[in-house]
Amino acid sequence: MSVRYVFFAVACTAGAPEAYMIGSSPGKGLGVFATQALEPGDIIMRDRPVIRITPPPFHDGIGYSLNEVGVLLRREFELLAEDARADILSLTAHMTAAEKEAIDQLVPIFRSNAYNTDQAISLFPKVARINHSCRPNVGYAWSERLDKQVVTALRPIDQGEEIFVSYIPLLHSREDRQKRLDQYGFKCTCEVCAQDTAGLQASDQRRKDISKAFSDFEPQLTLSVPQSKAAKKKAHNNAKASIQLAELVQEEGLADYYVTAYRVVAILHARIEDWKEATLWGHRSYKLSKMVDPQSDMTKELVAMTNEFISRWNDDVRNRSRKTS
Ligand SMILES: C[S@@+](CC[C@H](N)C(=O)[O-])C[C@H]1O[C@@H](n2cnc3c(N)ncnc32)[C@H](O)[C@@H]1O
């Protein structure tokens, strides 16, 4: 990838060199690029919020009152030092014609760049430079303990490759994804959206199939083992089909969804008491979940669940060896 790098704001402190730099991304303004080859699980950046607000009440069908958000933002902004204010005002924002005329552009800046962080909404000056892709290569998680947003590689990334997150849920057709991205004011030209018609149709179909499989499997995601003959047969078919789901997610390169897909495969194999496969997929899901957020409820659930599968697998092996001896 040939990119003309624009070096700026690369903090050079003692310790490991930064794994990223901010540079120009053709057609997308600025973007974030890997300064070294990265492996899944490598942490790319930890960024502290420059502004964090607890949002006003959310009104169904309307959303947040922009006036109320504006007041909260202005209050926080006024407390900041000059350079922090300049950082915020330099961020890219999609604005309506009326907003362009307005003196206060904090709301559109926040809307285009902020992330949900537990009960709050936060603006991170470096994370805000990460562009969107419908096939992102990094994940992110808010760490209350560190007071930072942590960005982690989800798959191998080459030196110089651009880092992409996803701004939207991805299990939708290109047309539907574009509708959601309209609020950011750009037409997505990521590697998925830039494919030819045949490639796009295949991608849309895969995402539709993945989404359908997730909702079809949802009611089956309990750890109780089916008892009737018919239910057992269905559970075997589901376990088989869940492997196809994991393969489909991998084929589409949806690294954001690996944890969820592998968890489904693990649970559906537990329902047919295939403890070896349940353990294998449970481990896969856990490892990826831990990379992005070691403290998340999902990671904790996967530890407990996979340990249960291991213990069942152990029992199975012991029982079998008792029978044969
Ligand atoms: C959160 S900012 C990302 C950083 C931004 N490129 C910058 O220069 O500061 C979001 C804005 O980046 C641009 N952008 C992000 N992803 C893009 C994409 N896939 N294609 C085109 N523009 C994109 C859009 O202008 C969008 O409103």
Order of helices and strands: EEEEHHHHEEEEEEHHHHHH
Q: Mind telling me the CATH superfamily name of the largest domain?
A: SET domain
Overall number of domains: 2
In CATH, the architecture of the largest domain is Beta Complex
Whole-number mean pLDDT: 92
**Structure class:** alpha+beta
Low-confidence stretches: 1-12
Q: What's the tally of helices?
A: 10
Protein name: SET domain-containing protein
Pfam families: SET
Précis, in short:
This protein has 325 residues and is α+β, with helices and mostly antiparallel strands.
SSE topology sketch:
Blueprint: E1 20-25, E2 29-34, E3 43-47, E4 51-53, H1 66-78, H2 82-89, H3 97-101, H4 106-113, E5 115-117, E6 120-123, E7 131-132, E8 138-143, E9 148-153, E10 162-165, H5 174-181, H6 197-217, H7 229-251, H8 258-270, H9 275-292, H10 297-324
Parallel strand pairs: 7-10
Antiparallel strand pairs: 1-2, 2-10, 3-9, 4-6, 5-6, 8-9
Helix pairs in contact: 6-7, 7-8, 8-9, 9-10
The site of S-adenosylmethionine has 21 residues, from strand 2, helix 4 and strand 7.
